[in-house]
Amino acid sequence: MKQMLVADLAERCRRLKPIEPSTYVSWQKAVAPIKDLKVSDVCLDTTLDYRMSQLKPWGPLAQSTLKCRLWSLQAIWNVAKEAQYVEDNPWVGSGKQYKKDRRRYGQKNFNDYLAFHEDPMFLGYWYHGMRLGELAGLLPEEIHTDADIPYFDLKHNSVRKLKNDASIRQLPIHHLFMPYVHLLKTDDKWLGKTWSNKLAKKMGHGAHALRHNFITRMRRAGVEYSLAMAIVGHTPMGETASYGDIYMDDINNELQKLR
Question: Considering the entire predicted model, what is its pTM?
Answer without folding.
Answer: 0.67
